[in-house]
Design a protein that fits this description.
The protein is an alpha+beta fold. The protein is built from 4 helices and 5 strands. Strand 4 and strand 5 form a beta hairpin. The radius of gyration is 15 Å and the shape is globular.
């Protein structure tokens, strides 16, 4: 399943309730489930004050892009200079892979709340995620 450019640094897949189903984060600064709850709350607030809610925001040198699919939030970080449409396209590919691997997540109440189910998802999207350590060593 190649063809995905490695432009995404960090990735979270979060339920509307803020439960992190999957994350791949380099250099985590905040506990994963706390971060999921925070982003879910920010998105809920954004949906209240504007149609469609939050689609992206920036912090220092990173942009956070949000994609909503089947009541899940797919959130990725990338450098600010990366075109948002390219990041969204990558997130769409990742969400397609996610729902093809876990079809029960397309329907409400089909999942038993066990997040361990998603622990091997990184193997299906490894080609989409930038590894800063490997990138660093490639520079030599």
């Amino acid at each position: 399943m190649s063809g995905l450019a490695k432009i995404l640094h960090d990735l979270w897949i979060i339920t509307n309730d803020g439960i992190v189903l999957f994350s791949r984060v380099y250099n985590p600064k905040v506990e994963t489930q706390l971060f999921g709850a925070l982003l879910s709350a920010i998105n809920s607030f954004a949906e209240e004050v504007s149609d469609g809610g939050l689609t992206n925001f920036e912090l220092s040198n990173k942009q956070f892009i949000l994609l909503k699919q089947n009541n899940l939030l797919f959130i990725a970080t990338s450098p600010k200079k990366t075109n948002k449409n390219i990041v969204i396209s990558e997130l769409e590919k990742i969400s397609d892979r996610f729902f093809s691997k876990y079809p029960q997540m397309k329907k409400k109440d089909q999942w038993d709340d066990d997040i361990n189910l998603f622990s091997d998802f990184d193997e299906f999207i490894e080609d989409a995620l930038e590894d800063p350590v490997k990138k660093f060593w490639k520079g030599f």
